Amino acid sequence: MTEAIKSSLRDSKTARWVVLILVSLAMLTAYLFMEILSPLKTMVQNAYGWDNSQWGIVTGAQGYLNVFAGMLILGGIILDKMGIRFTAITSGIVMLGGAALKYYAFIAEPGGDILGIPSQVFLAASGFAIFCVGAETAGITVSKILVKWFKGKELALSMGLEMASARLGSALALFGSPRIAAAMDIPTPIMFAAILLLVGLILFLVYAMMDAKYDKEGEAVASESDSSDDFKISDIGHIIKNPGFWYIALLCLLFYSAVFPFYKYGPDLMVNKYGVDPAKAGDIPGWLPIGTMLLTPVFGTLYDRKGKGASIMILGAILLIVVHLIYWTPSLDTVGFAYLAVIVLGIGFSLVPSAMWPSVPKIVEDRYLGTSYALIFFIQNIGLMGIPILVGKVLDIMNPGVSDKLDAARESLKAQGLSASEVGDKITEMRIAGDLPNYDYTNTWLIFVGLTIAALFLAIMLKRQDKKSGYGLEKPNMA
């Protein structure tokens, strides 16, 4: 009886698509803030004197609480225990609080050290870590919302459209943030993005009221109140015994570790390798989320109607290898190659997620979905935390003396009474003129090449496991 009522609710096409619009726009604001600092690496280093390792500390903060404090696992448990509405609203509040702290770190420019880390770096990393607890929990919550409303229907398409909306948020950050910072100052785009998070929280509240209204009218029995969905510790045991879960979780770890850190370092690569103006540093990487925004729903529809999910993931991994080989090769240093690589990256980044996330409900039972998504995001966050830190450390090691020369020039300019913004502009001019050195990314980029090769291996193993276990990854989602 409960399933029949749920089905009748999901059969309301208008309700389904209104839900999709609400949660997609909310995630757009989350991803916009997620990447708002990414295209500003060169500006931040020039203005505030961060080295690459400190940049890695801040951009890798995504996983500090989610991994070390187990907040993502806790988020999945809360989702399964407390339900979709509570978790969505709570995650929105947490995102807003973390964003406020990160903004404070830049507007206040605190001096001194905290735990041996410059105070500004520590506070920016702490704010981003708190924000990411909310953002990742919101991500698994939205995934469960879409499974609830679209399973057996346009599930892959709905997930593709939601991811497309999130990618639009990333694109807006990559294109807009450096231009706003160049015209005003670095804290201003962070402030704008934080205000939009408040809009995202309001959208989650509207969704919660809509969902509650259906429950009160008797048109749906909330799946979150169904005792069969209550979290049990044994759920984790059921999930981790499934080999398919590990293949897709580790593929997610490797794949996203080869893509999302590109947002953090790609704009700086464009400045240092291809000679792009720092005010336009996000333009070439910005085409990546635009491409995925357009293509992910297309590939999602293909998976819904034609299947071949495991094969789609293999093809996507191959394309990523090609992309990072282009960025790694020293002789391919013209802007045309940078654009070519980001186009191919956009295709690859559309293929894998369009098949990966809709495949999870085929591999694990519905009652374990919230915890399964949380575990996958937890594993993913290990890479999203570790890879930016590793890249920053390796970049400093492979470029001895560069940070010292930049610091010396910065201190000289500060002694003249220039503000951080003015110092940053002067340092940028000196680097463009060749008076100060740039960073060489060649050896560092081999990290991404290795990740993509490992991702291809996992994608092949997942397809083999699908044949063995009969998950149906190669079958269409729609009957």
TrEMBL record:
SUPFAM superfamilies referenced in this protein's UniProt entry, alphabetically: MFS general substrate transporter (SSF103473)
Recorded topology in the membrane: Multi-pass membrane protein
Short name of any one Pfam family annotated for the protein: MFS_1
Localisation: Lysosome membrane
GO molecular function, one term: transmembrane transporter activity
Primary location recorded for the protein, binned into one broad class: membrane
Keywords tagged on the record: Lysosome, Membrane, Transmembrane, Transmembrane helix, Transport
Membrane-spanning residues: 15-34, 54-79, 86-106, 121-143, 155-176, 188-208, 244-264, 284-303, 310-330, 336-356, 368-391, 445-462
Domain of life: Bacteria
GO CC annotation: lysosomal membrane
InterPro entries from the UniProt entry: MFS (IPR011701), MFS_trans_sf (IPR036259), MFSD1 (IPR052187)
Catalysed reactions listed for this entry: L-alanyl-L-lysine(out) = L-alanyl-L-lysine(in); L-alpha-aminoacyl-L-lysine(out) = L-alpha-aminoacyl-L-lysine(in); L-lysyl-glycine(out) = L-lysyl-glycine(in); L-lysyl-L-alpha-amino acid(out) = L-lysyl-L-alpha-amino acid(in)
Signal peptide extent: none
Subunit details: Homodimer. Interacts with lysosomal protein GLMP (via lumenal domain); the interaction starts while both proteins are still in the endoplasmic reticulum and is required for stabilization of MFSD1 in lysosomes but has no direct effect on its targeting to lysosomes or transporter activity.
Role this protein plays: Lysosomal dipeptide uniporter that selectively exports lysine, arginine or histidine-containing dipeptides with a net positive charge from the lysosome lumen into the cytosol. Could play a role in a specific type of protein O-glycosylation indirectly regulating macrophages migration and tissue invasion. Also essential for liver homeostasis.
Family to which this protein belongs: Belongs to the major facilitator superfamily.
Protein name according to UniProt: Lysosomal dipeptide transporter MFSD1
Organism of derivation: Carboxylicivirga sediminis
